[in-house]
Each structure stands twice: as structure tokens, then as C-alpha cells.
Amino acid sequence: MEIESTRIFVKVVQLGSFSKAAEQLKLPKSTVSRTISRLEAEAGTKLLFRTTRSMTVTFAGQAFYESCLEPIFALEEARKALLFKDSMPSGLVRLTAPEDLGLEMISPVLSQITKSYPQLDFQLNYTDDIVDLVKEGYDVAIRLGKLSSSRYKAQKIGEVKMVLVASPKYFKGRSYPKSPKELIHHDCCGFNLGSDTQTWVLAKNELRIQVKANVRIQANQMSSILKFAKQGIGIGLLPYFLCSKLIETGELLRVLPEWEGLSYPVSIVVPPGHGQSKRLKIVIERLSQVMKEALSA
Predict the structure, then answer these.
(1) Which domain holds residue 51?
(2) Whole-prediction pTM value?
(3) How many domains does the chain have?
(4) Which residues of 160-179 are buried (b: 16+ CB within 10 A; e: fewer)?
(5) In terms of domains, do 51 and 131 share one?
(6) pLDDT digits (tens, 9 = 90+) for 236-256
(7) What are the CA-CA distances from residue 161 to residues 50, 121, 158 (Å)?
């Protein structure tokens, strides 16, 4: 099989479209289609099922794609280096991350990088959904929580610490909770789990307990929960990186400061074959350095 034919196949699967692959490769769509048909004839099996409206990768096609992705990416990067196109970091970096981490930590880092490297461009997707990096064509992801087993390369850079906070306004006319069990008698702000009463897991040294929290207002963004806590709506269980500055200024108070919520690991993840180019190394190193410092504070 020719390397160029394999490269075309990889691009079709990566973009999920013959038309998009042809556009990116600057080839006629008919050439891309003939190339895939020739590959299938050589392999003696279907690699893609295609209709006028959709395209599906077969089991054999997926296995072939995963085997080819890393070497094809390495060849493309080697060709850039040979043509001196990678001596100065340039090109597009596509990144996905959880919304709160993206807005609070990642965007400021990328702003600094774009000033230092004006030929670098970024396309960002901040979402709490788990995005298929290969299928959607992303170069790097920031993932929150335990990672499932995969062929992706992952580097843990820290943990998100969860703390209980509330505005001083909230405690006007209210007693301060003396133990986690008293949270059930307070208004709370929590992540949207679809229930008014939620179970929060709190830890103190090696001790872990489950407590009921009377969640008066719920949201699917931690930044929104932070705003509700600032307004005195109730006690929130929030990432420390989001509220640390407000705790320092006294705008928010640590509630039951000897107790914390469960921590969540944060990892940088790249698909097979990615991460070796100069542009991605710079982005990953900067993100890793800044986020490690912020998460360890």
C-alpha cells in the first residue's frame, strides 16, 4: 500500500467526511474516493461504509486507522522539519477542556503563548463532555477525573481540591455549622445532579464521611455555583482554584475548613502520534507548568 493512499484514508476517518478530507488535502473528491476504493481492493475487505449522507468505519477500517495514525502523523511532522517549516512553531492547535478549567486556567496561558509565538493559532472547545480526540481531530485535551484505559498518552498534572465556602452575607442571622452533618439544615449550592437533597463525600485526613446537603440551587457550571455562593444563596462545594482569591480577600469564607470534598485528578491527554511537534510541545509544557503551580496552591 502506498503511503499517500494511507495518509488520505487516515484523513478521511479523522474528519469523518470525504469532502472535508478532499478540501483539507487540496484534492478532488473523486480522487479521494478512488483512493479508498483501491485500498479496500488491496486489503480485500471494506474499510468504510458510505452512503450519500453518512460514513461509518468498519471494524477492519478502525483497526487499520489506529495502526496507521501514529506513523502517518510522524511522517507529516518529519516532512515539516525537512522543509524547515517547523523551526518556528506555527499552525493550528485544537484543544478541548472542561469549561471551568478552560476559562480560569487555560485561556490565560494560551493568551501568553500567542503573544510569544504569533504564528500559532488555537481552536478551543470548552465542554464537560468527553470528546473523541481522534474522530474530532483534536491535538490535546485536558481531562478531569479518572481516565479510562486507552492508547492515548496521558500525563497527570495535579488534582482539583474541593472546599466548602459561603459568603459572610449568608451567615447573617444563621448559625455557623459545627459539623458536616449540620449541612442538612443549611441552604446549599451544588452541581446539577437532579435531586434537591444530595450526598456529599467529605474527607478529614484519612476519615471519609457521607453527608446530606440540602441543595437549594443547582447548576452544571462550577463558575455559576461560585456566583450563587458569593451572593449569599448558600454553602457551595467548589474547586479551590476557582475561589482561592475570594477566600484570601474575605469575600468568601471557608466553611468547616478541616474538611474537604473528594479531589479529582487533572491530566493532559494527546492522541497517538501527537505531541512530538514543536508547536504541541510548547503548548503542553506551558500548560503543564502553569496548571501544576495553580493546582498545588
Answers:
(1) 3-82
(2) 0.73
(3) 3
(4) bbbbbbbbeebbeeeeebee
(5) no
(6) 999 999 999 999 999 999 999
(7) 47, 31, 9
